[in-house]
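thought: user wants a sequence for this fold. calling inverse folding tool.
action: design(structure=
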């Protein structure tokens, strides 16, 4: 049984997701999906009965095989967008947590996705924050949250 929190309501989907920030010096680990022209943060859907922190740790482990631990909460984005994959409208609650790798990895390392259904097209790379600001990165307003010491709340209308 799939326990991911995603439901169709009228002509849109409601999604409850987590996104993960992992930093090394002035770099952020981002995901690159070969099927779309933009970068995004790693993450995935929360499951029913699962905290967003546990979902972030679980999702990253499932996708990369790497262990992490919680560092701090970053923020919440109420995200309204049309999916590049299925042209569906979404209303998404995206909770962003910063995690720390249990073992350090050099920022030049490309990390593959190890999930069978994603390993052909999804990888994780390090980008410095200045490059990220100039790149097609979604949702773009996450960048504004990186330097804040406070939990941030944003509404993103794409």
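)
observation: tool returned 158 residues.
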């Amino acid at each position: 049984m799939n326990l991911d929190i995603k439901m169709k309501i009228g002509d849109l989907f409601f999604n409850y997701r987590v996104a993960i920030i992992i930093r090394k010096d002035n770099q952020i680990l981002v995901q690159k999906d070969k099927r779309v022209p933009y970068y995004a943060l790693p993450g995935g859907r929360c499951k029913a009965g699962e905290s967003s922190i546990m979902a972030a740790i679980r999702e990253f482990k499932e996708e990369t095989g790497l262990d992490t631990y919680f560092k701090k909460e970053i923020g919440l984005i109420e995200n309204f967008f049309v999916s590049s994959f299925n042209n569906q409208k979404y209303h998404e609650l995206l909770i962003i947590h910063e995690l720390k790798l249990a073992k350090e990895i050099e920022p030049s390392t490309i990390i593959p996705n190890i999930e069978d259904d994603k390993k052909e097209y999804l990888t994780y790379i390090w980008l410095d924050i200045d490059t990220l600001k100039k790149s097609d990165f979604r949702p773009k307003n996450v960048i504004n949250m990186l330097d804040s010491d406070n939990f941030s709340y944003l509404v993103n209308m794409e």
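thought: summarizing for user.
answer: Here is the designed sequence. Residues 6-157 form a domain with the Nucleoside Triphosphate Pyrophosphohydrolase fold (CATH 3.90.79.10).
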